[in-house]
Amino acid sequence: MTLRLGAARTWRLATAAGALAALLALSGALEFLELKSLDLRFRFRGPQPPGSPIVIIAIDEDSFDELNLTWPFPRALHGRLLELVSEGRPAAIGLDLLFIEPSLLGPDDDQALADAIEWAGNVVLGAAFTVTEGDLGRREDFNPPLAEIRASAAGFGFVTLTTDRDAFVRSGALRRPHQDGFQESFTLRLYSLARQAGLPAKPLPATAEAGINFRGPARTFPIVPYYQVLDGTVPPQAFRDRVVLVGATTPVLHDEFPTPFSGHTRMPGVEIQANLLDTLLQGRSVHRTAPALAVILAAAGAVIATGIAAAMRPIMALLAVLAAVALYAVGAYGAFVGANVWLDLVPGPAGAALGYGATVITTLIREQREKRRLSRFFSPDVVRAILTTRGEEALAGRRRRITVLFSDLRGFTSLSERLEPEEVVGLLRDYLTAATAIVFRHGGSVDKYIGDAIMALYSAPFDQPDHAVRAVRTALELQQCVQALSAQWAARGGGALRSGVGIHTGDAVVGAMGSQQRLEFTAIGDTVNVTSRLEGLTKDFGAPIIVSQTTYQEVGGLFQARPLGSVRVKGRELPVEIYAIEGHEARRAPRVALEAKVTIEEQDVIVAAPLLDISRTGVAVALPPKPIGADRIVRLTIELPDLLRPIEAEARVASRRDDRIGFAFVGLRPEVAARLDEVLARHGTPPGSPARGSDP
């Protein structure tokens, strides 16, 4: 399928596809796929070791078992943990735990934790945002730690994580508006404290939210069980100059979220905080490009793919679009890995898919519509050739040498007077269907139907070297068709029917012609007028088939013909020599069996086959290994004995049997014919004797 869209139609389709793709990107319909594409980029990149000295003290299942405690742990126990960790002089300590309500063990328990926080001096506490939906609408509350606990802390910040529409965590808020000001995050407080302690730290991103550049799946950062710090298994010196995060990693406490690396297995919230802190300290925040760029990419992808699909064959266009998409994907991945830039990956390819698909579907619909229109005039092979090789340019009006055939029924008018109109329509449909099939079988094109008459063209829209021969063969077969149908119609009460056929070869302007509202494929010129007059002369001369001298010269001696003299046709000053074609093709030419090799070249395919016999009009060879379509024009190279140079000629497939295939020469050049006569004479056939012969 290569029916081309015009430039204007391509531009309209590209504009529509681009607008639709831009609308999809703007509406957020592609966002879910885009989020997943970011996850794939993380996984293709693979895990990386942490860049900052961060360690996690995990409240895990083993700690519950070893301490034999239920949740929540006594706050004095957390205080004891802080004292041990502080002995190692860490850069900062973050408690990813909430102390927003008084301890169940009483004020002394809260005070013990407060004293430990004051003694450490570099502890950041967690706070939480909560959202409630009520009759009065949505309400957001901020829940800080108890006043007596946070009083001695280095700071506190919210630990509430931001989730995308698929519940994955890919970014972390650094500040959130609350009441008349802003609240800073837990991680941002730790960043400031670590920087004050002298840890290397890059500048913060200018945005209020940072894309987390995850180092890897769960347990990428060093993890120490909570109980091992308390029992001394892990000494305080292990935390020197490090940022220590304390939080729950057990699934029982439900502080887990899916992330790009973890997928649906989830990652503890404290590890997500560690990834976010590392991202800030290392200056590796993932920066997403502006939403407007995604819209532009979607529209551009649609427009480019539409142009490619309109200019190339579907498979080649698909490969080109896929190559462009792959190149863009590589660039987007390189931007992510090399510059931490999140360039939207989905909108461009989605737009390209939309543009390519819309163009292919539109072309397919137009092709089917065009195929139905063209099938009225051309054989299926010609329709296929128009659609797959030339497109609409094959139908453009141009001057060319053609053969025109006019065929009319004799006696159909009187027959129609004796039958009901419905019967007449049915009989006419039977005849025109059979006649059209005959025209198509010989490679002709039906120009039009005029009642029971048919006008057919040969060597249009594509060149046919033997167009006159094809037209005469069509006329002969039409005679047989009418004879067979005449017997059937006579049985219904009608009389005998005959067919008159006129054939003329000459120049004409051929192509799609008509008004702006409707075009038809036709031929215009004196050649058409002469052919119509020749068909009318079949009544006067009593000859079923009359051809002009130019047609007779084209067919050579392939058919039995008798001259009818010179006649003047209406609308033409010069007389026309005419001939009557009698019966079928003339007797077959005598053949000579020779041992030789024949090379058969059809388009880009070349095969060889042994010669079986040769005549003045053609050759027969053993069936070649590759099938050759019926009525195809091929190039033959025949290496005959006693000839220094092989005979080269064009030929048409004329016959086929189980073990052999026959070719008829087309337009045999005089010098080639002379050399062929020489060979035939040498092997027993008089030169020129089969001048009126036929195909092998």
> Spans of 5+ residues with little confidence (pLDDT < 50)?
687-696
H/I helix tally: 19
Biggest β-sheet strands, sense, barrel: 8 strands, mixed
Q: What integer is the average pLDDT?
A: 86
Assembly state of the chains shown:
single chain
Structural Rg: 45 Å
How far is it from the N-terminal to the C-terminal residue, by CA? 36 Å
Q: Structural class of the secondary elements?
A: alpha+beta
> Could you give the count of β-strands?
29
* Coarse shape: elongated
Helix content: 40-55%
What does this entry look like structurally?
- The protein is of the alpha+beta class.
- The chain is built from 19 helices and 29 strands.
- The strands form seven sheets. Strands 16, 17, 18, 19, 20, 21, 22 and 23 form an eight-stranded mixed sheet that branches. Strands 1, 2, 3, 4, 5, 10 and 11 form a seven-stranded mixed sheet that branches.
- A hairpin with a 3-residue loop joins strand 12 and strand 13.
- Helix 1 runs antiparallel to helix 10, helix 10 runs parallel beside helix 12 and helix 11 packs antiparallel against helix 12.
- The longest helix has 28 residues.
- The chain is elongated, with a radius of gyration of 45 Å.
- The protein starts with 6 loop residues before the first helix and ends in a 14-residue tail after the last helix.
- The C terminus is likely disordered.
